[in-house]
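Open question from group meeting: does this chain pack into something compact, or does most of it stay loose? Before anyone orders reagents, we agreed to write out a predicted structure and look at it together. Recording both the input and the output here so the notebook holds the full record.
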Amino acid sequence: MRRNQFDKKFIEFPLVCLSYCSGDKNLLKDILIMCIVDNALKSTIKELCNPELIKANDFDCKNPIHQKIALVSIEYNTPLFSFEEAINKWIDIKTKIIEYEKIYGKDAYCRMGKQLIEDVINGRFGFREYAVLAAIHSILGKSKPYARITYEQISCRVLGYKKKSIKEVEIKNESALSARQIKTSILKLVKKKLVTTITYQQREKYYSTKIKKRDSLCELIAKKKLKHHELKLGIEDQIWSNNLRQQMDSMRYKSVVITRQLNRST
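Structure tokens returned:
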């Protein structure tokens, strides 16, 4: 299974969507449908879809929303069997997301290959590995080339929650992945070349989905650590320089005072 296999089409969804799946890979289909409808509603496409390409019986060629959804579903090679059902799923999930973000603020987002989500649904890729990969993506976002990530962060995000405090409020009984389960899933992702990882001094774990070579990742981490170290040294030097300056000023002042006292006594 090659990495570029998943890079043709992407879907983007809030991390909390994973909490709606509850470990059920079939519910990922709802996330995919939600993303298709979401992209369609944001689309400015005005061209018409060929009705012969649509399998759904409730497709209304005069409905502009149906037209947009149809075009996006064809673009993503994901046939819909009911447009009204797809729209209702979108409404249901979107409502949950809005309510969640009202309480906890803007959620983290996962940008994942569309083909990969279908591979999970069809049993060609493990749901646990997918959830771990989504957790890592939600931390990296679109811009970070890599990030230091803990097992605790992954454990929370696999369940769909960006913070431990949110998880503790939202769920009571659902058990999180153990460190061993997370490690096993990461090893599988590394083997499939979907994640690159480095552990520094047996405790700091760094992950990247963009950098494919460990040497390149190692170089970036080393540069950042060196820069941080030099900055820290510079701050420490400044602090000691200020201390020395204060002591020298104090000594000069004392010297002046003593000199004046000596002059008066003579």
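Observations to bring back to the group:
The beta strands are 10-14, 109-113, 147-148, 196-200, 204-208.
The chain has a mean pLDDT of 84.
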